[in-house]
Write a structure and sequence with these properties.
With 588 residues, the protein is an alpha+beta fold. The protein has ten helices and 25 strands. Helix 3 packs antiparallel against helix 4.
């Protein structure tokens, strides 16, 4: 259901950069006004607003979208994008690169309003000059003059370090192997020289034997050294090749994974295309069907639910969301308190009754006229709510009509009892008394004539129900008491807003009234032969001898017109009002 037939919006926006040039998150301050088609500010309250950033003034997809509950006062609102929702962070590239140059606003379920161009604040314009640096404290080669860096300004350290274990570990081991090979050859040569000397010094037979032994030993040693050298070189080469393939510490590339592993995942539909592309958008299959965030919500997602907060709301729990089972509402921590983000049951429904129509107006953004469920005075009941007239929040308590039988007479007692009659519908001609008349405590009273508001009082009920208020009042006026002085016996109630309705003959006679009088009339024992009373009367009544108003009553002579009627007009007696007039009584 649309909450507004039309809206006029003005948006002023400015980017707020962080102090570090490379800081990616930014915030976008948005201010504006909401007005009706008549140009008047919308009613105060929380409104569901959606803000979208676009590259162009028309068409195209939004590059950023955030939905917020925004408080509107006197038609004005101010909020900041990229702060409240941790999943909605504005990337500075959207602003710096010019990807987002226009902002669109949508109120509730209404169509998006005309887009407004983003304009930078002065500091943001100066920051534009730092775009090419792309980092904080970085100096690229293009920023250095030719010849400005000489050899004396540079130095190099052997990659392997002074000891084994450096970044070129395997290369160091290979060098050590080469040194070992040289030492081995020197040792073999030394042994051969010793054997030669021994051959000269000993007998020929012994020398020959020694020579053979030495030669065999030398050949064995040479063979062993050659094998060690070959194995060491092969191992070093293999290690170097492995190090070259890794190119980092702890890295595993596709070459290290068994062939067919990735293909197996793809075939099973577990990772699908994303296994080779690395793009989340390429997730498909049973998993991807639930995670297509571009077109649908994540399925099988559930908030923590409890009857009380899972943790205190403070700066450490900003963004914590939970479902309150006691009120059927989704609440989010804003750093100071839990704010109602959404309601599972419609507020004012049978499963979620409100305290009053005023309560619904304060909780539901864009609340509309209609029948709602209320709970007051220990009773749950339906009532018609007027959410548009004189600020809204009005509950229809009764209708007093001249077109049907007399239900609101002094004798009936319906002004003071808990009896109900009539159907709960939109206001229309016909006597009606709702449960709210005797169950809903309120302050203000509003009187309409034939569906048009006539007058609104200030606080006249003192947080009591209409039936309780009338029961507490007494008929205390003396004979022919004057209304002009607004004495205590008239129970005067000041009117805060009023207007002239020429068709009204019972309360204002087509004039501006300043007061309404509740249960004004002569006390028992005062002019019992011509007793005049009315339950609700207007300030144009000069004295109690003319019982004009709602619940008109006169006993005795009454100038020939005694009686007890729903509505009476000015006369020293009951002069009933003709058919086609009905007065609705609202409370707030």
């Amino acid at each position: 259901m649309k909450q507004f037939s039309a809206l006029a919006v003005f948006v002023a926006a400015a980017t707020m950069m962080t102090s570090t040039a490379l800081a990616k998150p930014v915030a976008l301050a948005v201010q504006g006004s909401l007005r009706t088609t008549n140009g008047a500010p919308v009613a105060d309250g929380d409104y569901a607003l959606a803000f979208a950033l676009y590259a162009g003034s028309k068409g195209g997809q939004a590059v950023y979208l955030e939905k917020l509950a925004v408080k509107v006062q006197r038609g004005l609102f101010a909020t900041v994008l990229g702060v409240d929702d941790p999943t909605k962070k504005l990337d500075h590239k959207l602003i710096v690169s010019g990807a987002a140059a226009f902002i669109g606003v949508r109120v509730g379920t209404d169509p998006e309003l005309a887009r407004v161009a983003l304009r930078p604040v002065p500091i943001a314009a100066v920051a534009e000059t730092a775009r090419e640096l792309a980092c904080s404290g970085c100096v690229a080669g293009a920023h250095l003059a030719v010849g400005s860096v000489a050899g004396k300004h540079t130095g190099f350290v052997w990659a392997a370090g002074a000891t084994k274990g450096g970044s070129a570990k395997h290369a160091l081991v290979a060098d050590a192997a080469k040194q070992a090979d040289v030492a081995k050859k020197a040792d073999v040569a030394k042994k051969a020289d010793v054997a030669k000397k021994a051959d000269v010094a000993t007998k020929a037979g012994e020398a020959t034997k020694a020579m053979h032994a030495t030669t065999a030993d030398t050949a064995l040693n040479a063979k062993t050294a050659q094998q060690a050298q070959t194995a060491l070189q092969a191992n070093s080469a293999k290690s170097a090749k492995s190090a070259d393939a890794l190119k980092c510490t702890g890295c595993v590339t596709a070459a290290h994974v068994e062939k067919g592993f990735v293909a197996g995942l793809q075939k099973a539909g577990q990772l699908a295309k994303v296994a080779s592309t690395g793009k989340f958008a390429d997730v498909s299959g049973p998993l991807g069907a639930d995670l297509d965030f571009a077109r649908k919500q994540a399925l099988q997602f559930r908030f923590q639910n409890a009857a009380k907060p899972p943790a205190p709301c403070d700066k450490t729990t900003i963004g914590l969301a939970w479902y309150d089972t006691s009120t059927q509402t989704l609440k989010v921590c804003n750093g100071a308190q839990y704010h109602v983000f959404a309601q599972a049951a419609v507020f004012g429904s049978k499963s979620q009754p409100a305290d009053s129509c005023k309560h619904i107006k304060s909780k539901v953004a864009g609340a509309t006229n209609g029948i709602s469920w209320l709970k007051a005075g220990g009773k749950t009941f339906q009532a018609y709510c007027d959410q548009s007239t004189l600020g809204g929040g009005w509950t229809l308590a009764a209708i007093v009509s001249s077109s049907d039988g007399d239900s609101w007479t002094h004798k009936s007692g319906n002004w003071e009892n808990a009896t109900n009659f009539g159907l709960v519908t939109a206001p229309k001609d016909g006597d009606f008394k709702g449960v709210g008349f005797s169950a809903l405590a309120a302050s203000e009273v509003r009187i309409d004539h034939n569906g048009q508001w006539l007058a609104r009082t200030g606080n006249c009920l003192n947080n009591k129900t209409l039936s309780a208020r009338f029961s507490a009042l007494k008929w205390t006026c003396g004979g022919s008491a004057s209304f002009g002085s607004h004495g205590a016996c008239t129970n005067a109630c000041s009117v805060a807003e009023r207007r002239v309705l020429k068709g009204d003959q019972a309360l204002s006679e087509g004039k501006l009234i300043s007061h309404l009088y509740f249960k004004a009339g002569e006390a028992n024992g005062a002019q019992d032969t011509n007793k005049d009373r009315a339950y609700i009367s207007g300030s144009v009544r000069t004295n109690v001898d003319a019982p004009m108003g709602l619940g008109s009553f006169c006993s005795g002579g009454c100038d020939g017109k005694p009686g007890d009627r729903d509505i009476g007009i000015r006369h020293d007696g009951v002069n009933p009002l003709g058919k086609g007039h009905w007065y609705s009584i609202w409370v707030r």
